[in-house]
Amino acid sequence: MIKVGTTTAIMLAIFSFATAVASAEPMKFQPGGNDTRCRECAFIEASGEIADDTPQAFERFLGAAPDYVPKRIRLNSLGGSLQAGIRLGEMFRARGFTTEVGSDRADPEGMPYFGGRASLRTPGVCASACAYAFLGGIERVLDEGSKLGVHRFYSKNALAQPAEKIFSGHDLDDTQRITAALVLYLVNMGVDAKVVALAATAGPDEMYWITLEEARDLRVTYEPRAWKPWRLEPFHGGAIAISETNDGTKRMVASCTRRLGPQVVLTNSDTSSDVANWFGQCRTNLFGGAHPVFGAQVDPTHVQVIKGKEGGAIIRFRLSTAAPSLTSPALFSFGSPAYPSACMSDQYEGSKANFEPTVRLAFGNCFQD
C-alpha cells in the first residue's frame, strides 16, 4: 500500500499540471446541512476552483471549526490544480472524511449544526481535479442529478501553445510518470485504475461524465453500509439466500431447516459497540408484541441472541410460516410501530435487489439441520 502523500510528492517533483476550468472564485469551505442528529444531516460545503493553496485553506478551516465538525464534505467544483486536488483527496482519506458530489442552498427554517448556517442539498458538479479529490473519501456518494467528470491532464505550456514543438523526451518521460502516479493514487484509494483510461478519452476542453453504473462498478462510489444484492447459495442439500454490506460487517441469511422451518439470521461483527446487549434489549422491548421480519410476525420467544466470541452478535428469527409476504428486507426498521425509538436503526435496511425471488427460493428449499 502506498503511503499517503506519495502521489503528490511524485507530481510536484516533475512539473506543474492543471485542469481546464474557467476563472472562478477559489474553493471555500462552509457549514451545511441541518441539526437533526442523523449521520448524514450535516456536512461541509466546498465550492469553487481548487487552487494551489486550497489544501492549506482546508487545514485553516478545520483548525477554526469546533471539535464536532461533521466528517462529511460536499464538493461542487469544475476543477483547478491537479496536485492540490490529489492532496485534498489524501487529506480526506487520512482524516476519515466521507465525500459527496453536490451543492446546497440556504435553508432559512433549518437548524444549523455548526457555524450558524443551515442548508439543503442540491445537485452539483465535481469535475477534473475535483474528481480526484472526491476519490479520497472513505465513503463516496454521487447523488442522482449530480455529475462527476474526468479528462486528460495537461501542462499549462501545452495548453497555451498546443501546436508548438517545444517539448523534449524528458517531458514525455514525465508524462508517463504522472500517469503512473495517478494510477497508484487510484489503487491506494481502492478505485479501479480504469478511471485513468476513461479520463484519457476526453481532451482538456472536453469531459467524460461517469455514469452512476460506471461509478459503482469502478468503485468510484463506495458506501460501506450499503447492502449488496441478494444471492442464492447451495447448502446441505438445500439453499440459503445471503446479502451483506459492502464493508462485510453486517450480514443477513434467509434459510429453511427441515426441523425448524424458515429463519432469518442477522450478524453484526462490528466491535465498536455492544451489539449483543442492544440485540438482547430489543428482543423483548416491543410495542406490538412481535418482530416484523420479511413480512412475517415473529414472537420474541422465537428469537435468539448469540454474543460473538470476539465482539459483535447474531440475532436469529424463526418464522412461523414458510410463505411470508416478503414486503421488506428491513429489520429493526424506522417504519415499524412495533419498536420504541431506541430499537430503530437504519443499519439493517437490507437490499431490495433480488430480495423476493431469492429469499422465496431459500425458504422453499429446506436443508437438513
Topology:
Layout: H1 6-12, E1 17-18, E2 28-33, E3 42-47, H2 54-64, E4 72-76, H3 82-94, E5 98-101, E6 103-106, E7 119-122, E8 125-127, H4 129-134, E9 139-142, E10 147-150, E11 154-155, H5 156-160, H6 169-188, H7 194-200, E12 208-209, H8 212-217, E13 231-235, E14 238-244, E15 250-257, E16 261-268, H9 275-284, E17 291-293, E18 296-298, E19 303-307, E20 313-318, H10 355-364
Parallel strand pairs: 3-4, 4-5, 5-9, 8-10
Antiparallel strand pairs: 1-11, 2-3, 6-7, 10-12, 13-14, 14-15, 15-16, 16-20, 17-18, 19-20
Protein architecture, described:
By secondary structure, this protein is of the alpha+beta class. The chain folds into 2 domains: 6-217, Alpha-Beta Complex (2-enoyl-CoA Hydratase, Chain A, domain 1), CATH 3.90.226; 231-364, no CATH class. Helix content is 26%, strand content 25%. The chain has helices at 6-12, 54-64, 82-94, 129-134, 156-160, 169-188, 194-200, 212-217, 275-284, 355-364; strands at 17-18, 28-33, 42-47, 72-76, 98-101, 103-106, 119-122, 125-127, 139-142, 147-150, 154-155, 208-209, 231-235, 238-244, 250-257, 261-268, 291-293, 296-298, 303-307, 313-318. The chain has a 6-stranded antiparallel beta sheet with strand order 13-14-15-16-20-19. The protein has a 5-stranded mixed beta sheet with strand order 2-3-4-5-9. Strand 2 (28-33) and strand 3 form a beta hairpin. The two termini are 43 Å apart. Mean pLDDT is 88; it is low at 10-22.
Helix percent band: 25-40%
Beta-strand segment tally: 20
Domain count: the total is: 2
Mean pLDDT equals 88
Q: Name the shape in a single word.
A: globular
Strand content: 15-25%
CATH top level label of the largest domain: Alpha Beta
